[in-house]
Specification:
heterodimer; A: mainly alpha; two-stranded antiparallel sheet; two-stranded parallel ribbon; 61% helix; B: alpha+beta; 6-stranded mixed beta sheet; 4-stranded antiparallel beta sheet; 5 helices; 42% helix
Chain lengths: 310, 260
């Protein structure tokens, strides 16, 4: 009932999107508190802001698939705020994520955020370094894509978001340099870089040539509550137009019977620790060396072993 | 409670983790180039005596040329190359009077110089209007292109691994210098900005300048790494970009065309 009331009051299309607005309000509140109140400039607020910055990037992802507000100007305004939250234009997600990443292909070239772009032997280094590679790939690709015929509206939208994000951050830097650098910019960049790392986490070792084994899913309920169901990545890739609030049900219904169960992870934290701190890459990648007999896919023929090798 | 100085050190630690990873990434590119340098060290000049492919072809590099129409007053198409594939038809090389067989399907890397790519791909097709119409569609314009090494061609042959239309040693040396220079400049500039950022007290203009320079280094070094890696890509996989422009409105007299 509360969600419905808030939905009507905020002009949202879906009641579940109240959660997304709440996340962004909390994040902006944290940034404002640290900027304005010296007592809030501590590691606890900073850590919380970094986490919510990552959630801001998750909301950018959801928003660029399905704008949450009924009114277009409000969506544009919301994108400005989100762009400030991660210091990159939210609209960059349209070519980089919606078009290129969802097809794992850039006209015969790899996805700009393909895990194959990093190749350190120690996988933890790949995780840390990944944004240094995927970020420039993305901005170069977006720039080329935006120049194409018929993209004038996109260019305007992209430019406006850039002006707002960089303009506001620049103004804050002029007002209070160190406070902005440590307590605004650091969280902004943390979230932007973490959302790029998610590409590595969700696809490394998975087989992007298949329909059901291209992504790793993180299925913890609490995790997905705060992450707006972004743990259910297989179903999101296959049906990007589904609203995020129904991904859990659709994942259970469509993906679980067909996918390699080892691409279902209960906890992202445990996966990260296991894979990037204690694991060796080849030992922890589920799709590699997987025996077909271990599959339980009643709706699909058993694949040949060769099809599982990258 | 941590002081501003502690947060400054945290930010510098983050900067240096990134600096070292970027340097290590560039180092891995340099390592690949050095491996290639070892391969081409024994390169010899040769002439293709016989090619077993169509029209006396010994080896072919095929690729897809893709184009998308650009916005602007004059019709223009942004063109790039991708999907490279090397096919070795086999044949015989003449190396200073002695013959050397190249087997069909041999795992050769075949390098063509920039001029060859330019001759084949930099010019727009004769029917620019039709190409522009296709380039303006969502799928864009595409055409397959190929570069071949044929009978009578002068080539450089290395260790059964590389066949090039130019001396690959100078290419590898030039690219290695570029990457090494990048690594050196990257580390030196990181050291310099760190030195400035460590100026105390923190509320001075110098310290703030150091903070701003550190941020610029953090944000700018990754795109530079990308540019260096792209520049150091081997000739058989490097993406090349052109813009075909026409100095007239589409559909006007082809005589006025100046496509390039």
């Amino acid at each position: 009932v509360v969600n419905r009331v808030l939905q009507a009051g905020l002009g949202l299309k879906h009641p579940a999107d109240v959660r997304q607005v709440g996340i962004i309000a909390t994040y902006m509140g944290l940034l404002a508190a640290m900027f304005l109140v010296p007592a809030c400039r501590n590691v606890f607020f900073l850590a919380a802001a970094c986490y919510f910055s990552f959630l801001n990037a998750v909301v950018i992802h959801n928003t660029m698939h399905k704008p949450p507000f009924a009114a277009r100007p409000v969506n544009a305004l919301f994108r400005w705020v989100l762009s400030f939250g991660n210091l990159y234009p939210a609209s960059a997600n349209v070519p980089s994520h919606n078009l290129v990443h969802h097809t794992f292909d850039d006209e015969g070239q790899p996805d700009w955020a393909s895990p194959d772009h990093v190749r350190f032997r120690l996988n933890l280094l790949n995780l840390i370094h990944f944004p240094n590679v995927a970020g420039p790939n993305t901005f170069d690709g977006v720039s080329r894509w935006a120049k194409r015929k018929g993209r004038a509206r996109f260019r305007t939208q992209y430019r406006n978001e850039m002006i707002f994000a960089f303009g506001l951050t620049g103004a804050l830097l002029l007002l209070d340099f160190w406070t902005t650098l440590f307590f605004v910019l650091l969280p902004q960049l943390y979230g932007a870089r973490c959302i790029l790392r998610i590409n590595l986490i969700q696809h490394q070792g998975a087989d992007t040539t298949t329909k059901w084994d291209h992504s790793r899913n993180f299925v913890g309920r609490a995790f997905n509550w705060i992450m707006c169901n972004n743990g259910y990545h297989t179903i999101h890739h296959n049906q990007p137009n589904l609203h995020w609030s129904v991904l859990h049900e659709e994942h259970e219904k469509q993906c679980v019977p067909r996918m390699d169960p080892r691409l279902n992870e209960k906890s992202m934290v445990l996966y990260l620790v296991r894979t990037f701190l204690f694991g060796k890459l080849r030992a922890v990648v589920p799709a590699k060396g997987l025996e077909p007999a271990s599959y339980d896919r009643p709706n699909e023929p058993k694949p040949e072993p060769a099809a599982l090798q990258r | 409670m941590l002081s501003l100085e502690h947060f400054g050190l945290l930010a510098l630690a983050i900067l240096w983790v990134s600096v070292l990873l970027i340097a290590a990434d560039a180092w891995s590119v340099l390592r690949d180039l050095r491996a290639l340098a070892r391969t081409v060290r024994s390169v010899v000049r040769a002439r293709v005596k016989q090619g077993e492919g169509e029209g006396g072809t010994l080896a072919t590099l095929t690729f897809e040329q893709l184009g998308h129409a650009l916005d602007g007053a004059a019709p223009a198409i942004d063109v790039s190359h991708g999907a490279f594939e090397t096919t070795v038809a086999g044949g015989i090389l003449d190396v200073d009077g002695t013959t050397c067989d190249v087997e069909r399907g041999a795992p050769l890397r075949v390098f063509f110089d920039d001029a060859a790519f330019e001759r084949e791909g930099a010019s727009a097709p004769a029917d620019f209007d039709s190409a522009f119409e296709r380039a303006a569609s969502p799928r864009g314009y595409s055409r397959p292109l190929a570069l071949s090494v044929k009978e009578g061609d002068e080539v450089f042959f290395a260790d059964g691994a590389v066949l090039a239309t130019f001396d690959p040693r100078s290419w590898v040396a030039k690219k290695s210098r570029l990457v090494a220079l990048y690594i050196a400049l990257h580390l030196v500039t990181a050291g310099l900005v760190t030195g400035v950022a460590l100026a105390m007290p923190m509320d001075t203009l110098v310290a703030k300048l150091g903070g701003a320079l550190s941020l610029a280094h953090f944000l700018g070094s990754a795109p530079l790494l990308r540019a260096v890696k792209e520049a150091a890509r081997a000739p058989d996989e490097a993406r090349r970009f052109w813009t075909w422009k026409l100095d007239r409105a589409p559909g006007a007299s082809p005589a006025a065309a100046g496509a390039r």
